[in-house]
Amino acid sequence: MQDAIREAQTIVTPREAEAIALYDVTDIEITKGGRAKLQVRIAYKKNLGRDGEHFSTMYIPISPFVKVSGLKGWLVKVNGKCLSLKKRDIAIIGMSESVGYYDDNQVMIATLPDVNPGDVVAFEYTVTEKGWTSLFQGFTFQVQQPVQYARFSMLLPDEWQLHKAEQRTSDVVQFTQTGNQYSWTARNLELQPEEPLAPSWSRLSRRVAVAGFDPESEDIHHFPDWGAVARWCADVHRPPAAASKEVADEAIKLTQGLGTFEEKLRAISTFCQEEIRYVAIEIGKGRWVPRPASEILHTRYGDCKDKVTLMRAMLQSVGITSVPVLAGVKNLIHPQLVTPFQFNHCIIGIPLDETSGLSGSHNSIVGKWLFFDPTDPIADIGSLPRELQGSRVLLGAPDDSILIHLPYASPRDNRRVLWADVTLSEEGALSGAIKISDFGSWAAQTRHERRTITVKKQIESWHGMISQSIPNIELTSYRTGGEGDSVWLSLAMRGEYHLQATGNYYLFKPDIFHTPETPELLADHREHPIWFGAPMRIESRITWHLPDDWVMEIDTAAVQISCRAASVYTKTTISGGILTYESIEQQNGQLMQPAEYPSARAFSQGLSSTRGQTILVQKKKDLE
Amino acid sequence: MTNSLLLKVVLLVCCLLPLAGRAEKKFEWQPITTDDWATAEDSARGIHDAVMIFEKIIADDRKWIDDKCYYSLYRRIRILSPEGREWGDVTAPYLHKEGKIERIDGRTVLADGREYALSKSQIYEKDIVRAKGVRIKQKSFSLPGVSGDCIIEYYIRYRMPESNKLWLIQKDIYLIEGEYIWKFYAGRGVSDQVYAAVSDDLVPNYLWVNLPQKGSVEMRPSIKEPEEVVFTIKDISAFEAEPYSPPEVELKALLRLYYGGSEPPAAYWGNLAKEIQDVLRDYTSANKRTRPIVEVIDTADTQEEKIQIAYEWVQEKINNTLYDDSDKKYKKNESVDDVLKREYGTAEDISIVFYDLLREMNIDAKMVYAIDRDENFLYYQAKYWQFDRCLVAVPNNAEGYDYYIPGIKYISPGRVPWFNENTPGFIVGDLSRQFVHIPASKSHTNRIKRYIKLKLDDNTQLEGTLQEERLGHSARSLRIRLRDYSEEEKLEYLSERFSDHFPNYESDSLVVEGLDELTETVSMKFTVRYLPGFQQVGNRLFLKPFDLFSTQEMPFTSVERKYSIMFDYANTLIEMINLELPGTMTIEALPPDSTFSNLIGQCQINFITFGNTLSIQRSLILSHPMVKAEGYLLIRELFLARQAFEEMAVIARTD
Predict the structure, then answer these.
(1) Tens digits of residue pLDDT in B237-261
(2) Domain residue spans in chain A?
(3) ipTM of the modeled complex
(4) Does the beta carbon of A94 lie under 8 angstroms from any beta carbon of chain B?
(5) Which of A339, B457, B578, B608 is the most buried (most CB within 10 A)?
């Protein structure tokens, strides 16, 4: 590290970079007793003065399982002066300040003050982790900033083995193994640019994660394969999911008079979803062991695994079996990294058979398993929250221990239909009606919003949207309704519509639901994949009853622009003073690679131009 | 040191042994009534998911002499929907060692009578901050059994070393009834004679602020010999923040409590002025080092010049410790001579030295104490120190004052920071008044002017330059922000701000001038490229000028407004674009020039063509930085008019 710091002044960093990691090394030794000792040394050269402040600060997570010792820090100024980290520069704060979230995690924060561009900050410390959780480790080589040198190594006891997963390291990180010493090294990683419509940095980072295990051990916390993880999960969840008399009585009360499997399932799932509020107690083993179902029922609160546990106990009481399912929200699950710590969420899996008979469409059934997330306030039986779609989950069932790929919903399962009928008089008076219908996941989201947002605020939100196209609009007669998996709302509108005059022309925008936007993809080149968003479909149909004295030139040819992940279709027709504008925008949730960027950019620009579509209008009296 | 703290020190010196503690009265839940259960959602009153039936506070200062003030909080909340359940999650932070949470009780009651008590194991404690000299801990809990239709209540008792000074009555939830019982300190622990000597300055005082209706005050057991004061208030709606408002603490209904004198406010301010004058006299009496300086300055021809020279002198010659971030320890200055000898001082030291220089030149300068309106407002009835900084006032020809604040960087003589404008100042030494109004600066003195010169090529690509000039507070805000930045950091910061205002442009080659001098104008120049194209229909191109200007927000979407509106300062924004079109293009149609103005300000847009160049100028003048809620419609009108300009488009035709 000293050499890296000495050479720091000769290193030129890209202008856009906030800092460069000169030296970032973590060496880990795992002992036979299941302890990990990490030696961490890290040095940054700060580039610029804006948000680069956080490079002057070290954040080290600590907990009852994780201790830090030997923390040292240095600030090497551009003029060569060296200052050391003082005790007063170190603070410990609670990790989470959220209400309803209880944990024993903290963060040690060490800040070197008065760091200017060109200065080098360096830290070194030792972390000691105890317990089986220390067998899982990870190292991030790079998120965004350039990296001069980074190394991650792990030394395991003899005869132990390693599961590993590498993300975006294949062409830039060298791996070597000597006996039971595993090492990954990276040099001269270039700055990763910030680009619009890119996946999250957690998906773009260059990262290695490992889990060590002793194949000969009888300790259930050594996981040679996914079957071992599934067995561990099942064992941990079994005792708390035992149904006490109170739990059984509640389940029976909820399902009284309900005959079918689906009816019982819905009654119990709704109860666990709505009656158990989300409170997480992640203290000690509470991080992975659920609380007993009877306690969850009594307190009426719990986290994801608690809600699953209660739901399982209640289902069991009415003769429905189920298993806990480990899932990852915003985490990419790597099949080759066998450890429960890839997962950060728990849902429920219910085996179906030919008698189960679920009605409606279901994107949450894979093979014989129905998946449901009682933590999500809007998910319905048969649908999956967006965050879980496309991810891998693991059944906590000893006999079914493969990772299952959850499907993406189709765009039609997440659809909104916008309809308007508008009349415009010669004097500019406007009147009309709007109806918005939502289907599938969109409907579930809207139902939730109607419960949590006041009617006044909902109308204000619609008013804000439509007034961008028609200023000074008045919205009245707010009505809502719903049936099956759809919901709708309707509004009446009234106002003055003043066409924007430009010389002898007037500018008319037929689409009142979308406002012109700058295309998001403007750059000439692209580094990262492109993601337009989760699957969804928006259909619009707007009918204008126009004044007789308008003369327009309209291109009535349909416009269709698409790329592999998204498409848009628009068509404008006019007949006898009635103009109809239709559009369909759709995203299928697929990730496009950088090589496909020209197609994605063309789509982005095409979408922007359709949203800002302007029709030139002239008035007959001006032409005479 | 506050007065009450000083008095405590005096009393501690004189006091008898502290009284043995009385046993705490056992806490009991109050019965839940049918009216409590009958509380329901009421959108007219803004009651939705939950409502606070009552909040009862007892602040017991009787053992204040022993650093033991007790504060107990008892709340009952009716939960009306599943979304209201979050009120069952409670956190209670406290300062470790100085304070303590002595007791927590909680319970949930359902309509069918079932009750869930909070157990000790359901209360969690952790450090939320631990650093040198500071340790803040927190106890938190989630009440068990909370449903979408229940009543929750909890009781927390704190012990603190000092008296509580604030009851924040208005919260994020509707409050039906609030009660605050103040068992004030009345001499317990000291002899009657000692207490009698200081009791005039230990009178319990209170001030209601922003109450929508009158609260009640009752002395118990009697007005003649009170031992406690009971404050009661009813029906306080939930607070809803609005954009561009004064500080929230100045909008919410609250009760301020303090120990002070019993004189009326006018007498308090009069006495305070006298005390300050005595302090100033002592401070400025030792000023031998002033004489040689005055001899030089006093030779200037006009009073204005003398003030200017004195102002620049104190700013240049005295090191302002306010801007020193190092750990260097500075001695406290006790006189003008101290400051001049040591050549350093606080912002207040510098202002007093300036004041003394002026007075030595027979200029009738006076000290004025001001508040920072972005933090708090001044309450005339509140008889305690409320001020944030001092200014120097000099009478002007218009029978008012000009104000100076040499202790603050980058402020020209005759100007004050924007947060002191439009506020009352406490003036010392003016026999005709105790308060003055510090006026707001005019919009044209705080100006941003941008000039964008662009050339459109045949491929509808736009490139050119952008120049920006800043004047007044607009310039000062940049100077303050960048004062410790290196040259590289300054350029990077300005480039980032440019991207915020002009997200559709790429920029480079920034040159900036005027940041370091106290000249009035900061100017910047960028080379820019506009990225998005323009909408093309056939051989027509729609150019929307507002896409080329900086992005402007429209924060006033609500048709109603409860609170006054506060901008930083009156200002003018002028933007001009000169767009050179290629020879293959002609302007077919221009929107009309438009102007909108009302009492609040003006917005304007003009279009001119000359040859193949299109020139567009838009401006926004905001004349009043502070507007009462009644004037909200005028503000909204002005911003809506500006928003309407955004739809304007120029039609160009390619041949």
Answers:
(1) 999 999 999 999 999 999 999 999 9
(2) 2-213, 226-407, 412-623
(3) 0.89
(4) yes
(5) A339
Nearest CA in chain B to A524: B531
Say if the Cβ atoms of B124 and A605 lie within 8 Å.
no
Task: Count the Cβ atoms, other than its own, within 10 Å of residue A621.
Answer: 8
- The CATH classification number of A2-213 equals 2.60.40.3140
In order of their start, the domains of chain B are 3-20+30-262 (2.60.40.3140), 266-439 (3.10.620.30), 444-654 (2.60.120.1130)
All residue ranges of chain A with pLDDT < 70 are 48-54, 359-361, 400
For the domain bounded by A412-623, which CATH number is listed? 2.60.120.1130
CB contact under 8 A, B535 and A612: yes
Q: Is there a contact between A299 and B644 if contact means CB atoms under 8 Å apart?
A: no
How far is B458 from B652, CA to CA, in rounded Å? 12
pLDDT digits (tens, 9 = 90+) for B505-531: 877 778 888 877 665 678 888 888 887
**Which residue in the set B140, B588, B640 is minimally distant from A503, CB to CB?**
B588
Mean pLDDT of chain A: 90
Residue B533 has pLDDT above 80, yes or no: no
Handedness of CA B167, B173, B174, B178 (dihedral sign): negative
In this complex, the residue of B82, B145, B647 whose CB is nearest that of residue A299 is: B145
Residues of A in contact with B536 (CB under 8 A): 609
**Are B126 and A555 inside 8 Å of each other by CB?**
no
d(CA B655, CA B649): 19
For residue A431, give the nearest of A489, A508, A509, A495 by alpha carbon: A495
Q: Which residue has the tokens 């409606």?
A: A360
pLDDT attached to residue A453: 87
Q: Secondary structure of B275-333 in the HEC alphabet?
A: HHHHHHHHHHHCCCCHHHHHHHHCCCCCHHHHHHHHHHHHHHHCEEHHHCCCCCCCCCC
| CA quadruple A188, A193, A199, A201: dihedral, nearest 10 | 60
**CB-nearest partner of B557 from A102, A460, A504:** A460
Question: Nearest C-alpha of chain B: how many angstroms from A508?
Answer: 10
pLDDT at B17 over 80: no
Residue A119 to chain B, least CA–CA distance (Å): 12
**Gap between the Cα atoms of B564 and A24, Å rounded:** 52
Encode pLDDT of B136-192 as tens digits.
999 999 999 999 999 999 999 999 999 999 999 999 999 999 999 999 998 888 888
Helix (H, G, I), strand (E, B) or coil at B272: helix
Beta partners for residue A93, in sequence order: A107, B129
Q: Does A458 touch chain B (CB under 8 A)?
A: no
For chain A, helix, strand, coil in percent to 5 are 25, 40, 40
Interface of A with B in 560-579 (CB under 8 A): none
CATH 3.10.620.30 holds for A226-407? yes
- From CA B481, how far away is CA B461, in angstroms rounded? 34
Give me the total of CB pairs closer than 8 Å, taking one residue from chain A and one from chain B: 155
* CB spacing of A555 vs B145 below 8 angstroms: no
B476: helix, strand or coil: helix
Q: Is B8 helix (H, G, I), strand (E, B) or coil?
A: helix
Kindly give, in sequence order, each residue whose CB lies less than 8 Å from that of residue B307, ignoring residues fewer than 6 positions away. B358, B363, B394, B404, B413
Contact yes or no for B537 and A97 at CB 8 A:
no
Place of tokens 């936007």: A517
DSSP-derived secondary structure for A19-69:
EEEEEEEEEEEE-TTS-EEEEEEEEEEE--SSGGGGGGEEEEEEBTTEEEE
Neighbour tally for A437: CB within 10 Å: 20
Nearest CA in chain A to B560: A460
Which residues in B lie closer than 8 A to residue A275 (C-beta atoms)? Answer: 82, 147-148
- Nearest-CA residue of chain B relative to A520? B532
